[in-house]
Automatic annotation (TrEMBL):
<feature type="compositionally biased region" description="Polar residues">
    <location>
        <begin position="21"/>
        <end position="30"/>
    </location>
</feature>
<feature type="compositionally biased region" description="Basic and acidic residues">
    <location>
        <begin position="117"/>
        <end position="128"/>
    </location>
</feature>
<feature type="signal peptide">
    <location>
        <begin position="1"/>
        <end position="21"/>
    </location>
</feature>
<protein>
    <recommendedName>
        <fullName>Transferrin-binding protein B C-lobe/N-lobe beta barrel domain-containing protein</fullName>
    </recommendedName>
</protein>
<feature type="compositionally biased region" description="Polar residues">
    <location>
        <begin position="42"/>
        <end position="93"/>
    </location>
</feature>
<feature type="compositionally biased region" description="Low complexity">
    <location>
        <begin position="94"/>
        <end position="114"/>
    </location>
</feature>
<feature type="region of interest" description="Disordered">
    <location>
        <begin position="21"/>
        <end position="128"/>
    </location>
</feature>
<keyword id="KW-0732">Signal</keyword>
Amino acid sequence: MKFTKNPIALIILAASLTACSGGSNKSTPAAESPKVNVAPIQKNNANTQSENVNSQTGNGSKQSENASSQTHNGSKQSEHASSQTQNGSKQSENTGSQTGNSSTQNSNSQSTNNPTDSKDITNSNDRDNIEYLLDPTKKVKWRQLTAFLDSSETDSANPLKNNGKMAPLGAAAHVNGDLRYSGGDLRKNLDKLDYDPSFLTNAEINPDKLQHSVITDKTGKTVVNTHFVNQTYSSYLSFKAEVPLTSLDDEGKTVKALDAPSAYIAVPTKADKAILDRKVKATYKGHTIGNQNRDNNQFTLGDIQIDADFEKMQISGEITKRNDELLRVRAKFKGAGYKGYTTDPEAAEPGTTDLINPEKMEELYAKHRSLQVKLLPADIKIANGVVSFENNDGALEFEAFNKDKVKTGSYAGIFAGPNAEEIVGEIKAGQNFISFGATEVQK
């Protein structure tokens, strides 16, 4: 059979042979990359995030609208995402969780250099999973103080006593102290104030950061300052009136309501001994919130460590780096006994109560603000739907300036989180309160 030469056919054949030999400069088209599903923008209930923020905020409630090319594991970010990372490694410097449409405004108040081992929840999906932990329908976030009850109606070791009355159902909530301010009372006058119960939900989760929020009246005037720390499964707070309520005592002297009430709200650990048995022992580190001076609004973080022995069902610990009024009630005493000091000439008694000037008394108050305090053992109990602890009988111990070991005050609280990852509660001596929280140290 004779083939006829066809120039066109030869050209096609040559091109085919070249392609088969791999000598072409044209590469084979790559398979199409899978599409990345970018999480939708998350908004919190108070709509408090800045509309122009291009980086993810600390509470993860809103993501950049320009992050359309963000990859799932944060392997590469779009240049328009303003360096937003999927794991929340960078936070917006401009938000600070400040509320724009509410008078409850958050500001970053203090951050320590003593980080705990807890996870920083900044991813919006992770944060939502935490906030909706008590509501599978994802309609109600638990981290909301919807009302304030009288101290007699709440119990730090039994925070579900009034379940649903001060916070969403299932959330453990407690408040203690005088919540009055000049002209009103938080327990009775919330309807007269511009108060956003979601201010904790809208703030950053950072167990080492003291944050500040204000509650105002309808004219925008601050009536109460709130200082708080958000842990993953709990928040603890201290309150202080901007202008304290004044009243007259039995002798006609003006008295100010100057104590700083404490509070907490948490996802309580289930009342299940098996959860604790898996740990055997655990160490928790965190902070206390205390007022540096009862005449001002300068709140600071102290350090706290709590050791839990789940075989003995006891906890104990210590508070260091204090700067608060917790031991003010003991500043008038020389040691463990009843001998002490007074600035009132009529109250002075030779041999028992020495007369000193007000300046000297202020020095004693100042010295007692920084003394190290031990938390003596408290029993861990599983009751009332929570895992709690409480010591009401001289639970705090410190060394007085005469070297006496002085016992005073009490402390109580609960374990928080599905696996008892956190502790939250209050410490008090006399009418002085400090709130505290701590996160389990991972070994």
